[in-house]
Amino acid sequence: MTENIHTTTEEIVEISHETTLFAEPIFHIGNFTVTNALLSGWLAVFVIIAIAVILRKKLREVPNTLQNIFEIILEGALDLCDQVTNSRALSMKVFPIAISVFFFVLINNWLGLLPIGGLGLLEKGEHGLAFIPFLRGGTADVNTTIALAVMAVIGANLFGIFSIGIWKIFNKYVNLKALGQVFTNIKKDKTVIIVAPITFFVGLLELVGEFAKVASLSFRLFGNVFAGEVLLASMAALFAYILPVPFLFLEILVGVIQALIFSMLLVVYFTISATDHEEHGEHGKEIEELENVVRA
Amino acid sequence: MELDLSTVAKALAVGLGAIGPGIGIGLIGAKAMEAIGRNPEATNKILVPMLLACAFAEAIAIYALVIAFSIK
User: Fold this and answer.
1) String of b and e for A206-241 (b: at least 16 CB within 10 Å)?
2) Residue B46: is it exposed, middle or buried by C-beta count within 10 angstroms (0-12/13-18/19+)?
3) Can you point out the beta strands (E) in chain A?
4) pLDDT band at A255 (very low <50, low <70, confident <90, very high)
5) pLDDT of residue A118
6) Which end of chain B has less Cβ packing within 10 Å, N or C?
7) Which residues from chain B sit within 8 angstroms of residue A254, using beta carbons?
């Protein structure tokens, strides 16, 4: 026991902060563990609500500074959204959720960079005392990014169901329509017996693709933000205070770019699932008809 | 003899994983430079898509980095 105390007092000199892959728990509410990533997630939500309330109260015809800044951001973002969706009507539907996700991810990315991260708890870790910061970028926890990615992919499919119908979305994955065409089109075109199973199989691949979407979306964001934190920590360990500064600016940029990429991919997924792929099919039918006419 | 191979594994994961994205980012940068050289007025239009493409390529290296971190 005395030896234990002895070792801990010795190791106080070198309090280690290991950047862990998982968010560290700060305190517990009953059975519910509150991690530092969750804490900064709540803070991000609070910041967004505060800004929204302030903006709402001071909303004017002639904008003041804050309103001006946000009007510029929103205009630029809406233009970008239009470029992806190719229609203002569609982007007006997708834009609110995309911009909300953008701000949530952006503020979470930046909260991890704040010097408030220097405040924290000292806890007995595996090797003596370990430092646990109160704030860890919410997106530097894989749970947050997976939740966001699942929301994006499920939301995209729901959006598709509401805009082009549940039957078409279902046929995108489990292509019963293509199988049905074996019986209806067999007299006109013999090749359908080969083409239809392939189309069906491609549909199943699309189903796997949805899970790949979740994985790539979540790990891209998590990896970038987490790698940034590790980079800053290791740079600070090499040469404190001055060396991390340029990397800090880099991380600010990375935070914006990753938030932009995440929300832009969300818009892309929503747009893809809202567009009717049968339109191309009908175009193909026209070509088929033309060919039949030529043959006749 | 028991060798601790986990360090080697980490190094290999990042090192091999960074080759592809490195080539990719190089190609993206080269093409962007070419495009800017051909049409210097389009610099602003090229820059943002270039950064986005760079981030996509970079993400692959970061997958490798996350794998390297998760090797115990």
Assistant:
1) eeeebeebbebbbbbbbbbbbbbbbbbeebbeeeee
2) middle
3) 25-29, 32-35, 120-124, 129-133
4) very high
5) 58
6) N
7) 55
By mean pLDDT, which of A10-14, A114-118, A205-209 is the weakest?
A10-14
Nearest CA in chain B to A215: B63
CA atoms within a 13 Å half-sphere pointing along the CA-CB vector of A9 = 6
Q: Which two tokens stand for residue B29?
A: 């940068």
ipTM above 0.90, yes or no: no
Q: How far is B2 from chain A (nearest CA, A)?
A: 23
Residue A98 CA to residue A105 CA, distance in Å, equals 11
CA A129/CA A7 separation, integer angstroms: 10
Round the average pLDDT of chain A to a whole number and report it. Answer: 81
Say what the pLDDT of residue A119 is: 67
> How many Å apart are CA A117 and CA B65, to the nearest integer?
23
Residues in chain B: 72
Is the CB of A223 less than 8 angstroms away from the CB of B56? Answer: no
Chain A environment of B66 (Cβ under 8 Å): 21, 219, 222-223, 226-227
Q: Could you tell me the pTM of the whole model?
A: 0.80
| Tokens encoding B10 | 């980490």
- Pick from B51, B62, B70: CB nearest A224: B62
What are the residues whose beta carbons fall under 8 Å from the beta carbon of B36, sequence distance 6 or more?
A: B42, B43, B46
Query: How far is B26 from chain A, CA to nearest CA, in Å?
Result: 18
Q: Rounded CA gap, A84 and A78, in Å?
A: 10
Q: How many CA atoms lie within 13 A of A288 on its CB side?
A: 11
pLDDT attached to residue A279: 53
- Provide the token pair at A161: 């169901």
CA A139 to chain centroid, in Å, comes to 9
